[in-house]
Design goal:
This protein has about 375 residues and is α/β, with parallel strands linked by helices. Helices cover about 40% and strands about 15% of the residues. The chain has 12 helices and 12 strands. A 7-stranded mixed β-sheet has the order 2-8-7-6-5-3-4, with helices on both faces. A 3-stranded antiparallel β-sheet has the order 9-10-12. Helix 3 packs parallel to helix 4 and helix 8 (about 245-285) packs across helix 12 (about 360-380). The longest helix has about 40 residues, at about 245-285. It is globular, with a radius of gyration of 21 Å. Bound molecules: pyridoxal-5'-phosphate. Pyridoxal-5'-phosphate binds near residues 75 and 185. The site of pyridoxal-5'-phosphate has 15 residues, from helix 3.
């Protein structure tokens, strides 16, 4: 990491694990064939490693290989799921037009939803409770025979809260409504078996779980009808045209395997570090935690700080810390997530998301506490 900067922004992205880089290495230049070239042996070798990787990734999620479509990341997977479901409904002459999501979804869900709202669909955007969790009664009331799709993320990228997926899945089942879940912050960090939770479509991304950037997947439950959003070839069951990036797929499989192996121990260790950081913050006074303390990702801490101005705060912090004030995909604007929780624009701007990762240490957390203490002393005095 850049000189003297402590990286605590692992929810934005994670470093590619060295073992992942190693697993990918042979597939760039040595075994470079196109897995769609089935007429020669190198192509078949590439196809075989894609299939092995697909089976391994799907298996970690309790799925079969046929239920996984590779794509470039969670943004694309969300677009394919949401727009693909809507277009399939139109294609088969269905009449369901209502889409439901939570106001705290990532923009990669909100924007496709809003796009569809401009094309004949009705969008119901539910306000979360003050702790960031969905209000299940509100969801139940919003579900109707016209509802096509509910999209609720597994773990929030800013405040880390974990939504009650099983209960949401049950409500959706009762109304025969499809349930899409953005699992970008959850896969590799939590045990997630979409089919047992009633999730029909699950998006996730390699670079959030110590895998490579540019690869992700959409898990699709059997029987879910999707219209392709990228045309031009028959790859991925005709749902996503384009030559498969074999090295990235191999890397994703390795990353999922490694993440499964250390998930529990990592979670426990990072929860300890995160709790220590929160204690340190509380001792500084005038700091509130955003989102429910539980259920929450073990590596997330999001705080709002009184008596300081957001821009000055982040300008000071960034000399020593790599932290975030919201989603990396919505840079510049005060967080829509924190505002949905009831924070003002100013409070949202004076907020910090710390997210810890595999190589975070006690020393990193101590340093973060020291830097924050020093920064608040200076800014609050000014
Ligand atoms: C919850 C959530 N969804 C979607 C995305 C987008 O993922 P990708 O960068 O793989 O497109 C992110 C990344 O920040 C995320 O946190």
């Amino acid at each position: 990491m850049a000189s003297g900067v402590t990286y605590l922004d692992y929810q934005s992205t994670t470093p590619c694990d060295p073992a992942v880089v190693e697993a990918m290495a042979p597939w760039w230049s040595d075994a470079f064939a196109n897995p769609a070239s089935r007429l020669h042996r190198p192509g078949l070798t590439a196809a075989a490693v894609v299939q092995q990787s697909r089976t391994a990734i799907a298996g970690a999620l309790g799925l079969t290989a046929e239920e996984l479509i590779f794509c470039s990341g969670a943004s694309e997977a969300n677009n394919l799921a949401i727009k693909g479901v809507a277009e399939a409904e139109l294609r088969r002459g269905g009449t369901r037009r209502r889409l439901i999501c939570l106001a705290t979804e990532h923009r990669a869900v909100l924007d496709p939803m809003r796009y569809l709202a401009g094309h004949g669909f009705e969008l119901v955007c539910l306000a979360p409770q003050a702790n960031g969790l969905i209000d299940l009664q509100q969801l139940e009331a919003a579900l109707s025979p016209e509802t096509l799709l509910v999209s609720v993320m597994a773990a929030n990228n800013e405040i880390g809260v974990l939504q009650p997926l099983e209960a949401i899945g049950q409500l959706c089942r009762q109304q025969q409504v499809l349930f899409h879940c953005d699992g970008a912050q959850a896969v590799g960090h939590l045990p997630l078996q979409p089919l047992t939770l009633g999730i029909d479509l699950l998006s996730f991304s390699g670079h959030k779980l110590y895998g490579p950037k540019g690869i992700g997947a959409l898990a699709i439950a059997p029987g879910v009808d999707l219209a392709p959003q990228q045309h031009g070839g028959s790859q991925e069951r005709g749902l996503r045209a384009g030559t498969l990036p074999v090295p990235l797929i191999v890397g994703l499989a390795k990353a999922v395997q490694l993440a499964e192996a250390d998930r529990q121990a990592r979670g426990l260790r990072l929860a300890g570090l995160r709790d220590a950081l929160w204690q340190r913050c509380q001792a500084l006074g005038g700091i509130q935690r955003n989102g429910a303390e539980a259920p929450c990702l073990p590596h997330n801490l999001n705080i709002s700080i009184e008596g300081v101005e957001g821009t000055a705060l982040h300008q000071a912090l960034r000399r020593s810390l790599a932290v975030s004030s919201g989603s990396a995909c919505a840079a510049g604007e005060p967080s829509h997530v924190l505002q949905a929780l009831g924070r003002s624009r100013l409070e949202a701007a004076a907020s910090v998301r710390f997210s810890l990762g595999r190589s975070s240490s006690g020393a990193d957390v101590e340093r973060a506490g020291d830097v924050l203490e020093q920064t608040l002393k200076t800014l609050r005095r000014a």
